[in-house]
Amino acid sequence: MPTSLVRWPATDVYEAPDQLREATMVWSAEPGIDLFSAEGTLVRASEESFAIGLMLGLDYTYVGFAESSNSPRNAGSLSGFRDDTGQGPFVGTIYGHIQQIIPTREGFDVLSCVLGVGLDRVVNGKYSPSLLTGSEGGEQRSRFIRNGSSESGLPTSPPAALRSRDRHWQAPTGNEFEGWEIDGFIDLDPQTSERGRCVPWARSLYPNAPSTITPDTYARDTPPPVQPAFPGWPDGSS
């Protein structure tokens, strides 16, 4: 419902922006990794905010993300985000996959992959590549550090009945980052980056995707399919 109130940046309750209404995020993980564990919840919230920051701008990311990640304003995709990209709307599905969670003394590190081949951006009434990632997936690596400001921790797995099957963007309404700092997003570690670790997973989803995707690869009249969001966010917004 339209409102005159300023909804972004969200400081208390998050509401999915209109530019993302027809997009979803679908998550998977290696065996033994629970998407609703403390680690899985943090990773999903962080990576979804990272994707939103690239698509729409830092102003539209989840509550607490900018502060927890110390993201500078207007600094570009590698060192930060523009406040508002002015792009969109976006239609389709982004895929995320958690490969490994590595415990540390201060928290944990995570290796993950993101694939945006199934997401298009509306440009002049046509559906064109979003260019969020290449066809081989984006190699992500983040470090999550406890900052001691929260003792409550994060929730464990909810009942399966709460898991979303909505074909609209699902988001947590509150601050999922309280008590944590986020260091880094793109994998720059020579031990794990640029070794094709995301390629098998990406190719299992889009085996026929072209190796190179540019802004003018296509401009279609019909939107890409939108997959149901998974696993979604209990009591989240859409």
Describe the structure.
The protein has 238 residues and is an alpha+beta fold. It contains three helices and seven strands, in the order βααββββββα. The protein has helices spanning 38-55, 65-68, 199-205, and strands at 23-29, 90-103, 107-115, 119-123, 126-129, 138-146, 180-183. Strands 1, 2, 3, 4, 5, 6 and 7 form a seven-stranded mixed beta sheet that branches. The chain is globular, with a radius of gyration of 17 Å. Mean pLDDT is 86; it is low at 151-162.
Q: Summarize the helix and strand pattern as letters.
A: EHHEEEEEEH
The shape is globular
Q: What is the radius of gyration?
A: 17 Å
Q: So how many helices?
A: 3
Residues in helix, %: 10-25%
Question: Which structural class do you get from the secondary structure elements?
Answer: alpha+beta
Q: Approximately how much beta-strand content do the residues carry?
A: 15-25%
* Number of β-strand runs: 7
pLDDT averaged over residues: 86
The largest β sheet comes out as:
7 strands, mixed
Show unreliable segments: 151-162
N/C terminus separation: 12 Å
Main features:
single chain; 238 residues; alpha+beta; seven-stranded mixed β-sheet; 3 helices; 7 strands; 12% helix; globular
What's the structural blueprint in terms of helices and strands?
Layout: E1 23-29, H1 38-55, H2 65-68, E2 90-103, E3 107-115, E4 119-123, E5 126-129, E6 138-146, E7 180-183, H3 199-205
Parallel strand pairs: 1-2
Antiparallel strand pairs: 2-3, 2-4, 3-6, 4-5, 6-7
